[in-house]
Amino acid sequence: METQELLGYFASALIGIALGLIGGGGSILTVPVLVYLFAIEPTLATAYSLFIVGITALVGGIRSALNNQVDLRTAVVFAVPSFIAVYLTRRFIIPAVPDVLFSIGSLMISRDMAIMVFFALIMLAAAYSMIADKRLDQEDSVIKYNYPMIALEGTVVGVLTGIVGAGGGFLIIPALVLLAKLPMKKAVGTSLLIIAAKSLIGFLGDVGSGQTINFTFLFIVSAIAIAGIFIGIYMSRFISGSNLKKGFGWFVVAMASYILLSEFL
């Protein structure tokens, strides 16, 4: 086993640890790990990411539900349009995108390059929300339901999930806190269940489109990530959530910068 592959399995544990610590962020790591450490081409990597993140988030979501940290009403309002959007994106939009989008002089913009650049931009947006948005630290005991906005956010997150293969926790959690006024811990638990269902449904769209899937590899990486989520849950007892989010945000900035430099240079 090559050093790069070993690093890939180690990073797979970090995916779960991130989910266990802050209820999101694991999906931000998954596509770069698959592309740069396991040498999987980006379009297939987004499909694999949906499965790995979906299974890992499902374990965390079930644990949150058992601890009464899931708001099922909000989850349904957010999730239904999100499910539809992510399935249609993976089933019809991604397969229809040509391998070469356009060229600028001698620079050819391929579908895979566009996916990675778009993913890096989404990572930067996620990092900003983790570093700068202090509103996510506020608790509000009165839960409110802005159904149209929650449903609209669900649709947008579904499309983004379908394109980049990320679970979208960095978008879901702000929506649940700011639009539904959920307490942070309940938003995290609700987000994990939404991520799990949405990601796995999106993965079914890939299976339906005829993608060749290496399930043995997927099960191994997913098992490592699931072990990581329990490590993350244990570590969260000793680490300040606010400091952790900011630190992870800067880590995501570094990863996004690396992706952009790799693609353009």
How would you characterize the overall build of this protein?
The chain is mainly α and 265 residues long. It has one domain (3-264). 77% of the residues lie in helices and 3% in strands. The protein has helices spanning 3-22, 26-37, 42-66, 72-96, 111-132, 147-164, 169-179, 184-208, 215-235, 241-264; strands at 100-104, 107-110. Strands 1-2 form a two-stranded antiparallel sheet. The longest helix is centred in the first third of the chain and has 25 residues, at 42-66. It is globular.
Number of strands: 2
Task: Please describe the biggest sheet, giving its number of strands, its sense, and whether it closes into a barrel.
Answer: 2 strands, antiparallel
Strand content: under 5%
Biggest sheet strand order reads: 1-2
Distance between the termini: 29 Å
Number of separate domains = 1
Helical segment count: 10
Q: Any low-confidence stretches, pLDDT <50, length ≥5?
A: none
Overall shape = globular
Radius of gyration from the alpha-carbon trace, in angstroms:
17 Å
What percent of the residues sit in helical stretches (DSSP H or I)?
over 70%
Run of helices and strands: HHHHEEHHHHHH
Arithmetic mean of pLDDT: 82
Q: Structural class, from secondary structure content?
A: mainly alpha
Using brief descriptors, characterize the structure shown.
265 residues; two-stranded antiparallel sheet; 2 strands; globular
